[in-house]
Amino acid sequence: MALVNLSNMLKDAREKKYAVGAFDVSNHDMAMAVIEEAEKLKSPVILMGLTVDLEGDKLEYWIEGLKSMAEKSDVPVCIHLDHATDVEFIKKCIDSGFSSVMFDGSTLPLEENIEITKEITDYAHKFDVTVEAELGHVGDGIVGNSETGVKKEKGAEFDNPDDFLTDPSQMTYFIESTNVDCLAVAVGTAHGVYVHKPKIHFDRLEQLNSLSTVPMVMHGGSGTPDELIKKSVNLGICKLNIFSEMLSAYYSAMKKQLNETENMAIWPCTANKKPLEALKEIVKQKIILLGSENKA
Predict the structure, then answer these.
(1) Strand partners of residue 135
(2) Which of 92, 233, 257, 285 has a 20 to 30 Å separation from 224 between CA atoms?
(3) What is the pLDDT of residues 214-253, one digit of tens each?
(4) Domain that holds residue 131
(5) Which residue out of 24, 82, 104, 140 is catalytically annotated?
C-alpha cells in the first residue's frame, strides 16, 4: 500500500471501536520487524520516531528508510514523530516526509500549549500531515525515566499520574482552538515501566470521549494490563503507544543470546535474530489485543 497519515486510519478505528498500535522504532531493523508482523496480521500500523534517535544526520537516514518500507508494505503505514517539543525540528520532520507528528506541550500552561500546537497544525496541514497533541500530562512510571525525551519544568513532579489527568472542561476549547487531528489524554497511564499497577479513570475517559470530536490516544501502553486496554479501546482510545515492552523483550532475548555465546565475534544478523523475534511477538500480541487484525 502506501504511506498514510492518521486521519482515515483513526477515523475507521473510532467508528469500529478498535485501536491501532503505535510502535517506537529506533532503527531500521525494528521498523522492518514491526511491518512484517503487521503484514502477517493484515493490520494498519504506526511507526514512531523519537527525537533522540533522529537528531542530526540520523533523521535523513531513518526517514528515507522508513518511507521506502511504507511504500513497499502490504498494509497502511503511518510514520509519526513521537513526543517532540522543538517547533523547528517538528517542521523539519514534516519537510522530510513524516506523515504525522506529535507536539507535546503537556508540561506547558494551557494557552501556550494551544498557541504552539496551532502553529504546528497550520504548518502541517499544508502538507496533508496530521498532528497529535497532548492535553493533561502522561508522566513516567519510574522516577527519572526519560523515555519520551520531554524535559520537566524545574520543580515539576509527574510521578503520580492522577495529579495531571486531562480536564474535560478544557477539551472542546483545546480542539477547536488548535484544529488538532487527534489528542493524547491522561487518564492514569504512565510512560516506561510501572512501579505499581496503573489505575485507569474510566469515568473520566468516557466523559472525554463524549466530548471529543477527534480520535483519542493513550500513551503508556507498555505494562498496562490487557483488560484495562480493552476497556479503554471500547471507551474511545484509537491509538495505543508501545515501546518499553518491546525493548524489554528485545534485550532480554539479546542478553540470553549473548550469555549462551562463547565466541563474541558473532554477526549482528545472528545476534539480532532471536531478539527481533521476541520484539515481533510483542507487536503481534498488541495488534490482536487492540482488534486491528484484518482491518488493513
Answers:
(1) 185
(2) 257
(3) 999 999 888 899 999 999 999 999 999 999 999 999 999 9
(4) 6-290
(5) 82
**What CA–CA distance (Å, rounded) separates 145 from 159?**
10
- Identify whether 1 is part of a domain: no
Instruction: Confirm whether 219 is domain-assigned.
Output: yes
Q: Is residue 260 part of a domain?
A: yes
Residues 151-157: contacts with CB under 8 Å, at least 24 apart: 151/85, 151/107, 152/107, 153/107, 156/107
What grid cell was written down for 204? 473520566
162 is catalytic: no
* Confidence check: pLDDT of 142 > 50: no
CATH of the domain at 118: 3.20.20.70
Total domains, the chain: 1
Residue 71 lies in a domain: yes
